[in-house]
């Protein structure tokens, strides 16, 4: 497979993949990411943040050519590699250099049905970067490790404040790869969080009070 070859050669020389990962590139990296398509609907728009060497975005594009995919990555050497991969494989994938939290990047990529990531950050920070890129009703689909459930318990409230609710752990590739890929899935909710709502109510009460006072 051409993508595996590029990871095993240019990916190594450019410091995107460790040399010890070469024997397990197919199972641990490419297939591990490609099975993510099991939880993504037909024709959806996907933004992959912190894409690095293209994981999970490139395997997902190869497995699911029906998807529209944008890769967001801040480092020039990585975006250069990603652009070369996209061109070499003839993929209909967009590469954007920048950080997911930057306003310019948000304006360029728009709102997605799904935002993906792999080993980018703890869930609380990941939620703060991902949620603004997800349309209301869209989903976070983040590849995580064995501590996924613990992350949800620890960061559930922080994610909720960012507008991500119904967090749960799912398994992709069951019966196809061992171990299956563990993902955290959450739904983007556009409702105002409780703390923000309370703050808004206090402001509204003060405004009404000031208005009554000025009328005396």
Q: Give the spatial strand order of the biggest sheet.
A: 3-2-1-4-5-7-6
What share of the residues does DSSP label as strand, in percent? Answer: 15-25%
Distance between the terminal alpha carbons, to the nearest Å? Answer: 79 Å
Mean pLDDT over the full residue set: 90
Q: Which sequence of SSEs, written as H and E, runs from N to C?
A: HHHEHEHEHEHEHEEH
Number of helices: 9
Low-confidence region ranges: 192-204, 207-212
What does the overall shape look like? globular
- The structure class reads alpha/beta
Number of strands: 7
CA-based gyration radius: 20 Å
Helix fraction bin: 40-55%
**Biggest β-sheet, characterized?**
7 strands, mixed
């Amino acid at each position: 497979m051409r993508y595996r070859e590029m990871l095993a050669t240019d990916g190594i020389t450019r410091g995107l993949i460790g040399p010890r990962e070469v024997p397990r590139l197919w199972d641990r990296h490419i297939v591990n990411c490609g099975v993510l398509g099991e939880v993504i609907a037909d024709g959806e728009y996907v933004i992959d943040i912190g894409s690095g060497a293209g994981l999970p975005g490139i395997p997902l594009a190869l497995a699911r050519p029906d998807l529209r995919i944008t890769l967001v990555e801040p480092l020039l050497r990585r975006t250069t590699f990603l652009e070369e991969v996209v061109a070499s494989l003839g993929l209909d994938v967009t590469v954007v250099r920048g950080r997911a939290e930057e306003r310019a990047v948000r304006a360029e990529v728009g709102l997605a049905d799904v935002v993906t990531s792999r080993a980018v950050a703890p869930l609380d920070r990941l939620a703060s970067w991902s949620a603004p890129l997800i349309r209301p009703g869209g989903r976070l689909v983040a590849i995580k490790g064995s501590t996924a459930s613990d992350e949800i318990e620890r960061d559930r409230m922080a994610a909720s404040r960012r507008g991500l609710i119904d967090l749960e752990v799912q398994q992709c590739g069951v019966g196809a790869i061992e171990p299956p890929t563990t993902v955290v899935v959450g739904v983007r909710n556009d409702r105002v969080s409780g703390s923000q709502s309370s703050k808004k109510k206090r402001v509204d009460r003060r405004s009404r009070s000031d208005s009554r006072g000025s009328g005396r």
